[in-house]
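Incident log, support desk, overnight shift.

02:14 A customer reports that sequence design results differ from what the structure should imply. Their input is reproduced verbatim below. On-call engineer (initials T.W.) acknowledged and began investigating.
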């Protein structure tokens, strides 16, 4: 599922920073990669 850059920015903006490590227990990857993984889930 690939979303337009604008949509990605909006989604990322609504995601709290503390929410990142909870969903993906890994060293914070590139913001883009993280978004892709979250969307995939």
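02:41 Re-run completed on a clean worker. Output:
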């Amino acid at each position: 599922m690939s979303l337009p850059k604008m949509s990605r920015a909006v989604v990322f903006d609504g995601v709290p920073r503390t929410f990142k490590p909870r969903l993906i227990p890994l060293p914070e990857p590139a913001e883009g990669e993280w978004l892709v993984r979250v969307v995939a889930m």
